[in-house]
Amino acid sequence: xxxxxxxxxxxxxxxxxxxxxxxxxxxxxxxxxxxxxxxxxxxxxxxxxxxxxxxxxxxxxxxxxxxxxxxxxxxxxxxxxxxxxxxxxxxxxxxxxxxxxxxxxxxxxxxxxxxxxxxxxxxxxxxxxxxxxxxxxxxxxxxxxxxxxxxxxxxxxxxxxxxxxxxxxxxxxxxxxxxxxxxxxxxxxxxxxxxxxxxxxxxxxxxxxxxxxxxxxxxxxxxxxxxxxxxxxxxxxxxxxxxxxxxxxxxxxxxxxxxxxxxxxxxxxxxxxxxxxxxxxxxxxxxxxxxxxx
Length: 294
Ligand SMILES: Nc1ncnc2c1ncn2[C@@H]1O[C@H](COP(=O)(O)OP(=O)(O)O)[C@@H](O)[C@H]1O
Ligand SMILES: CC(=O)N[C@@H](CCC(=O)OP(=O)(O)O)C(=O)O
Known about the structure:
Layout: H1 2-21, E1 25-30, H2 32-35, H3 38-53, E2 57-62, H4 65-74, E3 81-82, E4 85-86, H5 90-114, E5 119-121, E6 130-138, E7 144-156, H6 158-166, E8 170-174, E9 176-179, E10 185-187, H7 190-201, E11 205-210, E12 228-230, H8 231-239, H9 247-259, E13 264-269, H10 275-281, E14 288-291
Parallel strand pairs: 1-2, 1-11, 2-8, 5-8, 6-9, 11-13, 12-14
Antiparallel strand pairs: 3-4, 6-7, 9-10, 13-14
The protein binds adenosine-5'-diphosphate (ADP) and ligand 2.
């Protein structure tokens, strides 16, 4: 009986948070690393179904870096990453399209439905909502590094996403875009795609789910997690190389989100059961929070 009363207490405790976030859009970026763990993915998607059921409006933007690496290896191709971004030639683009836009995208939407939620996969075969342009990266000597078919999002079809949200469906968006000037496909880093979606929708919150517990002082030591960072400190961590590899575009995407007026962004561990709900429904939260100083 006591246990049942405690369960009811927990429900009542969540009431305030459920009210606060009802009808508000939360963008969740799902990293490829989390999706490698079937059990973790199932629990993350269950949390998302819960959010949708209580009237929040979750929007899912996903990557799939690990699955793309695997598919490239199977095709005899070696991935080349430049500051956390994949060099994307014609053959790589074909694989990214197949793995990210179709296999991963359609399987996430199908899993949400299996768990009792309603989802809509938004890809080139159904409805594309991301449009962009090619990017280059500044090199060490000031030259521009060519990344092939890699782009950034310049426009989001927010009407389609909002209509789905308000119809009680979870939009599931892969990190690929159509090039506005050529009509070709672009491979977009999923962290930056999530930023573009969150700012275009004026989201209440943006949460990056990865396979690390947050930003760490020593990337190999979970205990060195930094719970709270300012934008100034985060920039310094990139400059000094503490933040490395796939964490670079993630922290850069957080900073861009803050620059565009969202007050707080979170990097949390998707392998920790219910980390998403804990982040939203508890005051302490989990993972690393980056907040603007200005
Ligand atoms: N300072 C750091 N703190 C935490 N992780 C870091 C750090 N620097 C580099 N990393 C690496 O970044 C990875 C997360 O980026 P990535 O693999 O792209 O994740 P995702 O697929 O979730 O986007 C971690 O698994 C870790 O190896
Ligand atoms: C340009 C670029 O790097 N695109 C990424 C897109 C997927 C992604 O970002 O996946 P994660 O979120 O799992 O890292 C890539 O090809 O890996």
